Amino acid sequence: MENSRETHQQKKAFRLVLFPLPLQGHLNPMLLLANILHAKGFSITIIHTHFNSPNPANYPHFTFHSIPDGLSKTEASTADLIALLSLLNISCVAPFRDCLSQLLSNPSEEPIACLITDAVWHFTQAVANSLKLPRMVLRTSSVSSFLAFAALPYLQKSGYLPIKDSQLESSVPELLPLKVKDLPVINTRNPEDFYQLFVSAIKETKASSGLIWNSFEELEESALVRLHLDFPIPLFPVGPFQKYFPTSSSSLLAHDQSSITWLDTQTPKSVIYVSFGSIAAMDENEFLEMAWGLANSNQPFLWVVRPGLVRSYEWLESLPNGFLEMIGGRGHIVKWAPQQEVLAHPATGGFWTHNGWNSTLESICEGVPMICLPYFGDQRVNARYVSQVWGVGLQLENGLERGEIERTIRRLMVEEEGQEIRRRSIELKEKADLCLKQGGSSHQSLESLIGYLSSFKELLHN
Ligand code: UDX
């Protein structure tokens, strides 16, 4: 008892500094990781940008430091994700370095054992080197999609990129089962910026002291083996993070709890939950196809229409007059839902998703089968793995067309084929549960990570 208290106190005496990327899909896993490491006895400091700042009030056990990111209002509201991330990687260099060196020289705080940053913050490796601080990386995507990003130079050299319409359905033998249309491209004003951002992120990840994954071995075993060949640094698949604690509180938008009260009125496994995450956007035509597909499927649906989801509209204005009345109680539309609670609700029977990695993993964790409609980047790789490798979803291969949507919803929710997909989803959920238990793969990997971080602490002593 005495010993364990002593160990706990020793651990408390060291601090980790975490630097999340200010996007919802990146903030959530970084703050979950922070909670996991705090529960293991480390003190936590979060450095964050003013832009999309997390709410410190939700984490009274952490210390927060905000840095100016230099973004103008127009720059902060751009729809060009790559332009935004490239700019942040330049404008944050000086403020981040200043903040970190101040923390390192602050004698009233515990010594800092290690910096953990999002992989996309590539400039932080040079800063860490200059301050002689080990840097570890959290990559918030799947391992499989990271391998596809890591192959960008090869894909470009071999003519797969830029993507040609005539090759969309061709397979990419080096990245099976991916097809050309699944390659993780993100559209931007200047395609060279996309390429540079990810090539730098990959290079500086390779130069880091280790790589943490919100994934688990049973899900991505062969991708992890392949990754190790090319990235001879310690790898720690310790996910799914969202299963360590009952709820997460890093949402940038308010959760509409009417989602849950509405689900309470529905029969078990009958509802299709529809949400495309925090960034994806669509045109009015696509939105209308979606609305009619949902309406015609005759299944109850809970639909997240985020303000900004439909380009040029505030919210639901483009729906035809009388549409909502026609749906009646069969559909419920909200601006933002408590997604994890929704997926865990007994009435939820399917998830129509854009396959952001958090959504994909949250669905896997609850054993909810998916309909996949990826928009950009890693989502395309995730969707292919969900539908073809793990067999826990159906992919809408031809974009948004009401007839195909209606058929796909019915295939998943009503037909025999859907039962089989649900069975596999439940099997995968059981694997996700097991990996976190004593002796499970992620449990062991987390123990190794704690040991590894503790070895940095010992360096500080010498
Ligand atoms: C982005 C990228 O688009 C994605 O491809 C990448 O894998 C991570 O970063 P995003 O599009 O927002 O993320 O999707 P996702 O990764 O699924 O993250 C969304 C998060 O918001 C999830 O944790 C989800 O639970 C939460 N969410 C979503 C809500 O809390 N409420 C909602 O209504 C919708």
Descriptive report:
Pfam families: UDPGT (PF00201). One of its GO terms (molecular function) is quercetin 7-O-glucosyltransferase activity. This protein is of the alpha/beta class and 462 residues long. β9, α13 and β10 form a beta-alpha-beta unit. α17 crosses α18. The chain starts with a helix and ends with a helix. The structure holds uridine-5'-diphosphate-xylopyranose. The site of uridine-5'-diphosphate-xylopyranose has 26 residues, from α2, α14, α15 and α16.
Number of helices: 19
Helical fraction equals 40-55%
Query: Structural class, from secondary structure content?
Result: alpha/beta
Strand count, sense and barrel status of the largest sheet are: 7 strands, parallel
Identify the strand order in the major beta sheet. Answer: 3-2-1-4-5-6-7
Q: Which ligands, by name, code or SMILES, are bound? A: uridine-5'-diphosphate-xylopyranose
Backbone shape: globular
Domains (count): 2
The whole-angstrom Rg is 22 Å
User: Please, what is the average pLDDT?
Assistant: 94
Secondary structure: number of strands: 13
CATH architecture descriptor of the largest domain: 3-Layer(aba) Sandwich
Return the CATH class of the largest domain: Alpha Beta
